[in-house]
Write a structure and sequence with these properties.
This protein is mainly alpha-helical. Helix content is 45%, strand content 4%.
Length: 208
């Protein structure tokens, strides 16, 4: 019993110590005002605003002294300095992009090509295919105009055919129209129809 009492007293002393340590402590989900944190406000005051900008001359590794319109900034090994664009010496420029994506133009060029091709079929979506479809004729419009110029006028042709039809009807209607005239006017012999009709009726010509 004496040991049990001693153990309880020991536990009671530990709990009292723990309670004492927890007294005055903040909850886990607590917060603090900026002023409650030593030195935080002064550290924030020394920082730039999130929306701030810098002039290029403010960059420590960029030299802008004597820069002129039309020049570019080139790396000299320690800093960027103004330099004229190398005339016809593109291969000597180092670290240049190797494709359109490197220039940031990939999406723009793709969009322009898509708009140019639009809904053209796959067999006509290149300049070579379009040229082949036109017979590789650089003067296709003039060629077609010349070809059409050699064709008969539709209005004149229709009118001429109408006149011929009217003349043919008039010839056939004449009582004294001969077999030869009927043949020229209609393209058929006056004896063909009666013979066909007799053949359909089974009236075959008899040998004499």
């Amino acid at each position: 019993m004496a040991r049990l009492i001693l153990t309880v007293d020991l536990i009671d002393g530990l709990l009292a110590s723990i309670i004492s340590d927890l007294t005055g402590k903040a909850p886990a989900a607590h917060g603090h005002a900026i002023g409650d944190i030593t030195g935080l406000q002064s550290a924030l005051d020394a920082k730039a605003a999130g929306s701030h900008t810098h002039a290029i001359s403010a960059l420590s590794d960029v030299l802008t002294t004597g820069i002129a319109i039309g020049q570019i900034l080139m790396w000299n090994g320690t800093a960027f300095q103004p330099s004229a664009v190398p005339a016809g010496d593109w291969p000597t420029i180092t670290n240049k992009p190797t494709d359109l994506a490197g220039f940031g133009l990939s999406a723009e060029v793709t969009a322009l090509l898509d708009n140019l091709i639009a809904a053209a079929p796959g067999s006509l979506d290149t300049l070579n295919e379009l040229a082949a479809a036109l017979g590789d004729d650089p003067n296709f419009a003039a060629t077609m105009t010349a070809a059409l110029a050699g064709k008969a006028d539709a209005t004149a042709t229709t009118a001429a055919l109408a006149l011929k039809a009217a003349a043919a009807i008039q010839i056939i209607a004449e009582p004294a129209c001969s077999a030869a005239e009927r043949l020229r006017a209609t393209g058929r012999s006056p004896w063909i129809l009666p013979i066909r009709q007799r053949l359909r009726r089974g009236q075959m010509p008899q040998k004499q």
